[in-house]
Amino acid sequence: METKVPLIRLAKREGMETWKVWCIRVGSILLALLLGALVMVLVGVNPIGAYGTILSGALGKKTAIRQTVKIAVPLLGCALAIAPCFKMRFWNIGAEGQITAGAIAASYFALFWVGRLPGPVLLVVMGLAGAAAGGLWALIPAFFKAKWNTNETLFTLMMNYIIIGVVRWLQGGPWEGRPGSQIIPQFDGAACLPRVLGVHCGWIIVLVLVVFMHVYMRYTKHGYEIAVIGDSVNTARYAGMNVGHIMMRTMFLSGAISGIVGFIVASGANNTLYDGVAGGVGFTSITVAWLSQLNAFAMVVISMLLAVLEKGAETLQTRLAVPTSISDIITGILLFCMLGCEFFINYRLILRKGGHKEVAK
To answer: What is the DSSP letter of 198?
Structure first.
């Protein structure tokens, strides 16, 4: 029996030497820089000067470094949050809403409990409230998935818009400051995270979470159960694991960490609450998680890289009058190349040789 052979086929790689993996990754970054340079040349900008401006704008001064770290903190925290869900192949696209839920809970205590509790105690309560709110908000789609096998991608995505709508209602209603302003008042100083080395101490909290998630995912029973479910749900059930319970537990943990990020952003970076408090971090962190291969320590590097690009792009726009769209294009090219290289690490292309047909045996 003869069968047609396609011109190009994909085959899963059994394994690749470490040095080859890193050669592909470094090559993808160099390709992205070359493509970005081409874009800059087309708009009449010196590529070398532009890349230098990006680096100096993000890392050239202490104030710039502090701003870069502030951008990286929520990215890193949210990537840590969604990592266990993605390891389990539960596609949590609702981190944006879970951050917002945590920020709402923390803001309640910041606005209405100032003076009732000492400053340090108030901050702890705000953090715990943020974790609880984020965890409970994440638990809703997890329950429906475990009970009725609903589509978690759509469920978590839609819940983002619900909680953002709640914030808008609070801005123009119960928590509105000056009537008609639709702005929630700034937090009292006692409800704001203290600064360490010029940056709010949220960066310390997130680094502690890096160590925690590394240990949790690699060296605990819960982490092992998550990995087994990610490999095969049927195998997990055959081994006697309560898959539904593990899904809900993991999603609660994910939402709780996202809620802590919401507390950090509201109390450390913004010192208030508004409908864009998450700032798209919940979606960008998906890229961070995938690029790092769900490795907690690799997420630190990727988060800083994206933060440098974001902060440097702002400087590029102000110093060289480069349109924001060009900065976004360069960032997109880099992300595309970095994500695309993983395809060539995991798969190989097989070109057809000889004739158009082969004999099936």
So the answer is: T
What is the token pair recorded at 269?
């970076």
Q: How many residues does the chain have?
A: 361
How high is the pLDDT of residue 351? 75
Q: What interhelical angle do 281-291 and 296-320 show, nearest 10?
A: 120
Q: Nearest-CA neighbor of 21 among 344, 297, 302, 298?
A: 344
SS3 132: helix
DSSP 237-301: HHTT--HHHHHHHHHHHHHHHHHHHHHHIIIIIISS--TTTTTTHHHHHHHHHHHTTT-HHHHHH
Q: 322 near 316, Cβ under 8 Å? A: yes
Do the Cβ atoms of 265 and 103 come closer than 8 Å? yes
- Whether 111 and 75 have beta carbons less than 8 Å apart is answered as no
Q: State the Cα torsion 333-336-339-341 to the nearest 10°.
A: -80
Q: 308, 298 in Cβ contact below 8 A?
A: no
Positions in the chain short of pLDDT 70: 1-5, 352, 354-361
Task: Give the DSSP H/E element, type plus range, for residue 140.
Answer: helix 119-148
What pLDDT, on the 0 to 100 scale, is given for residue 192? 95
The per-residue pLDDT for range 18-75, each reduced to its tens digit, is: 788 888 888 888 898 899 899 888 888 888 888 888 888 889 889 999 999 999 999 9
Structure tokens at 4: 């047609």
pLDDT at site 5: 66
pLDDT of residue 356: 52
The model carries a pTM of 0.90
> In the Cβ-directed half-sphere of 55, how many Cα atoms lie within 13 Å?
6
The helix (H) or strand (E) run that includes residue 358 is strand 357-359
Distance CA 182, CA 47 (A): 43
Neighbours of 327 (CB within 10 A): 22
